[in-house]
Amino acid sequence: MISRADFMCTIGYEGNAAVVDASLKRACGALSTIELAEKGLFKQAVCSAIYEGGEPLAKVLEIYNSRTAHPLAGVEELKRIFGVSEVPEGIARVIVI
Q1: What mean pLDDT comes out for the span 53-73?
Q2: pLDDT tens across 36-54, in order?
């Protein structure tokens, strides 16, 4: 299974491999979901919340809505705009670039 930090910093997939941004992973891989959201790293915060089981998504949504002129209606919309719905299955390796 892919690690939380790798999932948060994945920039794409190549077959069964996740392509991970090394500098982003170094910068934010150890931050909590809420810390990520507070720093404005919403895609990474959404990924972290999904990886942790989804409960922190409501808090990420609350932080996101407090900082935007176009609030979202719910967590499903938040996941959709950042293009993340679940932790992918079948990732056999990670390519760090």
Answers
A1: 95
A2: 999 999 999 999 999 999 7
How far apart are alpha carbons 34 and 32 in whole angstroms?
5
Grade residue 33 by pLDDT with cuts at 50, 70 and 90: very high
Count of Cβ atoms closer than 10 Å to residue 53 Cβ:
8
**pLDDT surpasses 80 at 3:** yes
Phi, psi of 18 (to 5 degrees): -95, 135
Q: Is 34 exposed, middle or buried (0-12, 13-18, 19+ CB in 10 A)?
A: middle
Secondary structure of residue 96 in the 3-state scheme: strand
Dump the DSSP string for 3-63.
-HHHHHTEEEEETTEEEE-HHHHHHHTTS-HHHHHHTT-HHHHHHHHHHHTSTTHHHHHHH
pTM strictly above 0.90: yes
| 16: CB partners within 8 A, 6+ apart | 90, 91, 92, 93
